[in-house]
Automatic annotation (TrEMBL):
Name of the molecule in the record: Methyltransferase type 11 domain-containing protein
Methyltransferase type domain boundaries: 53-103
Organism for this UniProt entry: Algivirga pacifica
Signal sequence region: none
Amino acid sequence: MKINNPASRWALSIRPKDRVLDVGGGNHPHPRANVIVDKYEDDDTHRNGNLKVYRHQEFINADGESLPFEDNAFDYVICCHVMEHVPHPDQLLHELSRVSKRGYIEVPSLLGEFLAPKDSHEWVSLEIDNKIVCVRKNDIGMNQVRFDFGELFLYQLQKQSLAYKLLLRTEPNLMTVRYEWQDEIEVIVDPQDERLRRYFTTPWGQQQIMEQFPKRQLPKEMLDTCKAFFNLCKTYVGGFRA
């Protein structure tokens, strides 16, 4: 079940003695991970740079949909920007929850994929009713890219705009779905429920907007902004990319 929408991948509930697995760490593995799994050692098609593994980490070449570990081999599992690439997201998530009872998933949201589309992404996701719902991009016409603002939203604003970084931390499901879970991952792949599909196929009305981004009172807004700023400062002090 879902337990949190973390402000970023640097704000996870990992305990000091947890044994941590990062599935698909690619060129930006989480430094807290003890073991890194990646399917592609020499092929950078699905990532933005060469495979990277820190000195304290063990690397294992494996497919996330068939992990070579015993049940509950880890205390926490991280999987960032992998699910949108795989043929069977439900199988990937089954494997994550098999090898660990706690973890974090991050994938592009519908808005994030619309503004910064990637040809290598097969799926697009939203969090609806505390579940991850994902549909094939081809099924909703997102394979027909007209504009690509990825250079602006993924790189330029990330480099120069503090306000943008704070926005992403106060609205964690804006450009991505950031989903911390425990015991099981609730996911719906290729939903047939028309109510769910409308989130992906029709303009959002006020009800859908409020469901995705509930209104916050001013005191909570101020508190969330302060927490986001503190998280951002910790990220920089730790020497990690924000």
